[in-house]
């Protein structure tokens, strides 16, 4: 990444892992979850001992938003969990280049903001974790063996209008900044997949509730806002799936991708693996999701995005291995979106 020399690195969550992942990519100092400030400081210090990561921070400008493994998966009324989140936020601010940090002892971190790159692009860094509730609303009626329990049956509770991932304050901020944007490109930076993803477990319809599919009312309002305001060249830049995924964002899986309002480019993980029980349900359901144009769970790496007034080009930068030093980086797929048309073109 340092050799590619990007003007800006967008890191969209899970800078650290609170859990110990399988696959041996990074051995944590303990198997137990971090709970205290000392625990989170030790976890960040471990990650920052990596010479390649040190070089990246020495050379490159970062804009970061946290996801579930940086702190908590969702909001909580449990005092112990709120103290844990306060510890996570303090360590996050101590180790990472943030403009606004949580006050010492506070369990609230100011996250959402807009970043203007002249009049070329406006980046909307969204907070998808601190407000969300009931991510696991459908867990009790789901098969825990399907996708390691990460995917859940699409139950009626998902349509509850009181469920929200962004919250009213953030939705109002987003609508205001979209309405006043002078930028050629308007990039929605999300820690999780915006596009719907229809999965099947036998005869049952399943979704990935950690993504916007778990909060369909939020996604409908977002798309309605983009349409109502006539936002210039919206694009979603996302993460979380430890895979590369390229899609035309539609309201419902199965909708004609030619009616998409915006493209989505979801970057893979830098080092963490994506186990086959999580990859196979998505791969097996691609025929039911024609808006998903590309899915690659096998490689680690990142996306290299190039904005101009005329186009956005995106390269998938793929590492031959993340299991030991010396992996070789290459460009895999290349895509382009022309200003004024949301259609994704494969180059």
How would you portray this structure in words?
21% of the residues lie in helices and 24% in strands. The protein contains six helices and 16 strands. Strands 3-4-6-9-11-10-12 form a seven-stranded mixed β-sheet, with helices on one face. Strands 13-14-15-16 form a four-stranded antiparallel β-sheet, with no helix packed on it. β15 and β16 (344-346) form a beta hairpin. α4 packs parallel to α5. The chain is globular and about 50 Å long.
Q: What percent of the residues sit in helical stretches (DSSP H or I)?
A: 10-25%
Q: What composes the largest sheet?
A: 7 strands, mixed
Radius of gyration: 19 Å
Enumerate the strands of the largest sheet in spatial order, edge to edge or round the barrel. 3-4-6-9-11-10-12
The end-to-end distance, rounded to whole angstroms, is 22 Å
Integer average pLDDT: 94
Please work out how many helical segments DSSP would assign. 6
Strand content range: 15-25%
* SS-derived structural category: alpha/beta
* Number of beta-strand segments: 16
Q: Please provide the ordered H/E string of secondary-structure elements.
A: EHHEHEEEHEEEHEEEHEEEEE
Catalogue the unreliable spans: none
What sort of overall outline do the alpha carbons produce when their principal axes are compared? globular
Protein name: Alkaline phosphatase D family protein
Pfam families: PhoD
Organism: Endobacter medicaginis
Domain PhoD-like phosphatase metallophosphatase: 1-315
Which features does this protein show?
347 residues; alpha/beta; seven-stranded mixed beta sheet; 6 helices; 21% helix
């Amino acid at each position: 990444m340092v050799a590619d020399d990007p003007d800006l690195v967008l890191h969209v969550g899970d800078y650290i892992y609170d859990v110990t992942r399988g696959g041996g990519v990074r051995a944590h100092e303990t198997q137990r979850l971090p709970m205290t400030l000392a625990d989170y400081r030790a976890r960040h210090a471990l990650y920052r001992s990596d010479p390649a990561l040190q070089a990246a921070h020495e050379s490159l400008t970062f804009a970061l938003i946290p996801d579930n493994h940086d702190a908590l998966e969702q909001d909580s009324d449990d005092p112990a969990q709120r103290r844990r989140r306060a510890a996570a936020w303090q360590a996050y601010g101590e180790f990472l280049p943030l403009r606004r940090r949580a006050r010492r002892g506070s369990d609230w971190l100011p996250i959402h903001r807009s970043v203007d790159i002249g009049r070329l692009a406006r980046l909307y860094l969204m907070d998808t974790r601190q407000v969300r509730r009931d991510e696991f609303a459908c867990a009790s009626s789901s098969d825990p063996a399907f996708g390691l329990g990460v995917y859940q049956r699409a139950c009626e509770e998902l349509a509850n209008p009181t469920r929200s991932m962004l919250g009213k304050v953030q939705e109002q901020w987003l609508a205001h900044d979209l309405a006043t944007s002078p930028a050629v490109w308007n990039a929605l930076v999300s820690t999780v997949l915006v596009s719907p993803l229809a999965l099947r477990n036998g005869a049952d319809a399943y979704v990935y509730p950690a993504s916007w599919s778990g909060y369909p009312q939020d996604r409908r309002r977002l798309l309605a806002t983009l349409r109502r305001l006539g936002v210039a060249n919206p694009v979603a830049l996302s993460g979380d799936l430890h895979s590369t995924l390229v899609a035309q964002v539609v309201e419902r899986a199965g909708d004609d991708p030619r009616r998409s309002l915006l493209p989505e480019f979801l970057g893979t993980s830098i080092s963490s693996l994506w186990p086959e029980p999580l990859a196979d349900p998505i791969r097996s359901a691609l025929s039911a999701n024609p808006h998903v144009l590309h899915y690659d769970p096998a490689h680690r790496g990142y996306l290299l995005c190039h904005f101009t007034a005329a186009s956005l080009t995106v390269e998938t930068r793929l590492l031959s291995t993340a299991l030991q030093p010396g992996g070789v980086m290459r460009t895999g797929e290349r895509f382009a979106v022309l200003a004024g048309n949301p259609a994704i073109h494969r180059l």
